[in-house]
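Researcher: Sequence of PROP1-like PPR domain-containing protein follows. Predict its structure.
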Amino acid sequence: MFLVVTKMAIRTPCTRSLLRILSFGLHSVAAADEPTITATVNDLCRVLSDFRSQNHDLESALFPFSSSVSPTVAEQVLKRCRHLPSPSHRFFIWSSSLPSFLHTPTSHFVLLDLLASNRLFPLAWTVISDFHPHFSHSNSFRLLFQAYARASLPHDAIRAFRRMPDFGLQPTIDDLHHLISSLCHQGLVIPAQEFFHEWKAEFSITQKTYTLLMNGWASVRKPKNAQYLFDEMLQQHLPVDVSAYNSLMAAFCRGGELEEAHKRFQEMRTLQRLEPNAGSYAVFIRSYCEAKDVNSAMRVIEHMKMHDQTPNVFTYNAIIKLLCEKEKADEAYQLLDEMIERGAKPDIWSYNAILALHCKIQEVNKALRLLSRMDRDSCLPDRHTYNMLLKMLIGIGRFDRVIEVWESMEKRGFFPSASSYAVMVHGLCRKKGKIEEACRYFEMMVDEGIPPYPSTCEVLRRELQRLALGRRIEVLVDKMKRSTSCSIQKLSNAMDANQIFEGNT
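Model: Prediction complete. Tokens:
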């Protein structure tokens, strides 16, 4: 079998990579009967990254791992390779064919989600069909509703709903709500309401159904349409709750009819005897934030405190963002402290909004102190956090801090992607005397098997040409050609000045 696979590998564009993986796979099986899950997952993810093209012999590259792939390992690989939909699908099919192998339900949903999210709908339907009835579940179709809606394909989302009985699933009112919510969330309210009127006789419609549609009309700023649905709900003698009023008020607020929204707020309290909740106040806060009226937004916050209501994280974040836009950092920090005191745990958006202000006005120490505070508050930085920090530090020439932040990434469990490397390479290329550091980070990216952006290759190549460092370009091109990543091998042409010159002659 080894000789057969090796001959197959010679015809692939990744011969060196495949031979390396084959030798590693046979060695690992001989050296250890049960390699650690982490090591196996890392190796498999590298294989999927290296063999991402359709014409790559991925199955042969996966063969050495046949005895070490468990359902748990497969699940972790799929979760980590969400950016590689086609190789992930091929890995899923390959592992499914292994003797006595059965994927976990989570693996099925992860694969289906990444295929649908990347608009590979035929493959998504193949997964549903091929693994029916083992993985037949309403959640599979709900993933399709969301993906089709994000792709602005409302009729395909509705068609998926209609096809549920073909897979032994009778749609429920919850499935109906997921479809309507998915469409409305993407502003596809007209097809959502048309579908609702066509199917409402088939289900026991509740006030929640109307509320979802009113939220949709609020998102597209059509308060009159929301009012029509609210009146229809009353005609159907459905109980009116706070959520329905909140949706109606949100529609008036977003439609610029703030006075009408206030009238509905009073009507809810006096006529319907309903006590407003945090969401009732939030619709007004978001409206004031959109209007850049920070004083009115803060007055509503104070009013909420008087009624023992706590804003949720999204409401707090809207005000924090507005305060930072107005460069009121002290007030933003006060709200951050208040969030914690009142049990509304800040998220990454809360911190990044303040960090963006520090980076904008180049407050290095405050930015780094905020990063340390995130550690204390158990909020992990994301790529936006690091990219903002690195871009600012490079821009003002604080290279000592750049190294400090970069080295702290791995300690926090964050591994830089192409975007973070691009920040480093692009920024360093613009700094006098930092071309060698730019090359070093580019080489690190290549060594990690992370394909750089074509623009990153171009920026670095042009700067090296400007400095008459043609030999350095050759070294980088050679390293890229020797990479185990086929994508990086192909990108070597974007770095090779000679090929570019020949192509233009």
